[in-house]
Amino acid sequence: MAHWVLKDWNDEENRFIIPGPVSGSDVHKHFQGHFPDDAVVEITEASGELNQVSFHQLPGIELARGDTLALPGVPVAAGPLLYVMDRLLGPDGCPWDKKQTPETLIRYLLDESYEAAEALVANDTDAFIEELGDVLLQVVFQGAMLSGTSFADVAARQAQKLIRRHPHVFSGESWDTSDEVRKQWDNIKAEEPGHQRSAAWVFPALVAAKRLSKARIFPQSAIYQEFLALLEVYFDKDSEKIEEILADAAWAVAAGGSIHHQDAEWALWRKLAEVAQETGAKSRNGGKKRISRSLGE
């Protein structure tokens, strides 16, 4: 397949160009599953005439010498996923996908990361591969919605960061042990510009709630006060089983949310975000710093 090459097309986009002579059947067989059947394939004849066919029509086509075939997207790495994402967000795409924002997708970014971790710990390789794909989808989805950037920008920036933080691999320096690597990594990272904004409440919901509580930040609602008082009643009845009581109470909250088709973790997470942001807005200087320090304990 050495003659199947990626070319830059008019300095605007990358396209995967396959020159003839080649059998459309071979192309379809090789890339089947990469693109949907209705994806548009462009065939340019040696005369310059341009024809468009659907991907599923390729088995009946033969390309002569001088003809070229342009696949609907780059068929390696994230290329097929980027093509599918572009279709989903396009004019004839999915109404749900097009309705999303980077903020509405946060829950899925976190959920998919947990599911990938679960599959890894369970030593389920097949499930882990699938869940890593779900994590990648969230990266591609977020990248597609950010203005002025793309997945390619995200990937290139990460590659640059890895090169910068590994001079012992890419710049001729010599660090022999993992401890040395860790120390130099931290030193390089410390020299890089920091992020201007902070949202330290972004933890698993119960962890974030505990940390906000340490900062003396609580919901100002009757529901919060009533549930807390009820928990204290159970704690007083059996002070040696507080952990079990907390577990059962948290489980009951999760089950109650499920009954009403709601996610208790996500509901609490959103509430924490609102409270933390409102508190930070009221105290942009000392108060906000105090909250961030407490959350980072």
Keywords:
single chain, 297 residues, alpha+beta, Helix Hairpins, 3 domains, five-stranded antiparallel sheet, two-stranded antiparallel ribbon, 13 helices, 10% strand, elongated
| SS strand fraction | 5-15%
What is the typical, i.e. mean, pLDDT? 82
* Helicity, as a percent range: 55-70%
The description of the largest β-sheet is:
5 strands, antiparallel
CATH architecture of the largest domain: Orthogonal Bundle
Explained architecture:
By secondary structure, the chain is of the alpha+beta class. The strands form two sheets. A five-stranded antiparallel beta sheet has the order 1-2-7-4-5, with no helix packed on it. Strands 3-6 form a two-stranded antiparallel sheet. It is elongated and about 85 Å long. Helix 2 crosses helix 5 and helix 9 packs parallel to helix 12. The C terminus is likely disordered. The chain has three domains: 70 residues, no CATH class; 111 residues, Orthogonal Bundle (Helix Hairpins), CATH 1.10.287.1080; 91 residues, no CATH class. The protein is built from 13 helices and seven strands. A hairpin with a 3-residue loop joins strand 1 and strand 2.
